[in-house]
Amino acid sequence: MGQNKAKSLTGIALVVMASFIFAASDVATKIIITQVPAFEIIWFRYLAYSVISLPLLMRPPAVSLLSSRNKPLQILRGLGAFGSGAFFVASLKFIPITDATAISFTAPLFVAVLSAVFLAEAISPSYWVATLCGFAGALLIVKPGSADFNIGSTLPLVGSLCWATALVLLRQMSGTEPVRLTAAYSALIGLTSASLIVPFVWIDPDPAVWPYLAGIGLATTTAHMMTVLAYGYAPSALLAPFSYTQLIGATCMGYAVFHDIPTLPTVLGILLITASGLYLALRNRQTH
Predict the structure, then answer these.
(1) Cβ partners under 8 Å of residue 98, min gap 6
(2) Domains identified in the chain, total number
(3) pLDDT of 138
(4) 42, 190 in Cβ contact below 8 A?
């Protein structure tokens, strides 16, 4: 019992640290997003991810990309993860980091909908109520039809849908693929996709920007690795609620660096999204 508790606490600590690292990386991204195109930042992120994750395939026992039993699903999942990152990074040019982060946490709500539609999973009425409340929270932040509406607010919502699609595809592959193989596919698909786009938008970074690009690549890769490692210590149903600490980090760092103060509708939206996501996570924990 004591060993299981220690492993759970280790997993929770890793998720919390990863969440704050992600938030710090997003702050650095927002600092330079007006100087460097979003796809250029994404390219550097995936370059760092590939340099670190692809060599792990050679760790004994070696794993080949061709050994995947679900190559089409791996490719689609990689594209979903790439779209998620690209849309989120692009949104930081237009909206506060707290808003973008909060909207991105609608992914579990999209997962519930996609699972019901494509995986024929039974969804209880309380699930649907929680999901609708979460989307209502997103609408409070996005403010469609109002004078304060910013088209950039829709970008993290689209990115959230992309990430939810990637999660559903991952669920379909559950237990059939090694974690490092899935990570390698994500890195390779993301780097390839970004490499096809970045020549058309490339801007030579100012010397002062290079440390940010290097830091963003290293930080996001480290956070991803910590997250994967965390799920080796504890089940996702236990760890999922702690990922919401990223919202705390994003809000605090957004205020400290950019002096962003969330509006009342944004605060209400964040609370609805968080409450809905936590409810779904806790229900999943009870049923698994």
Answers:
(1) 247, 250, 251, 254, 260, 262, 266, 270
(2) 1
(3) 93
(4) yes
> Could you list the residue range(s) of the whole structural domain that residue 112 is in?
2-287
What are the tens digits of pLDDT across the range 252-277? Answer: 999 999 999 988 989 999 999 999 98
- Residue 204 half-sphere exposure toward CB, CA atoms < 13 A: 1
Q: Are 20 and 245 in contact (CB under 8 A)?
A: yes
Determine the pLDDT at residue 25.
96
What are the C-alpha distances in Å from 37 to residues 21, 67, 191, 193, 201?
A: 22, 35, 16, 15, 7
Spans in the chain with pLDDT lower than 50:
none
Residues with Cβ < 8 Å from 217, sequence gap 6 or more? 44, 45, 47, 48, 49
In this structure, what token pair is assigned to residue 288? 């698994």
Cβ distance 25 to 216 under 8 Å? Answer: yes
Place of tokens 């409810």: 279
What distance, in Å, lies between the first and last C-alpha atoms of the chain? 19
**Whole-structure pTM value:** 0.90
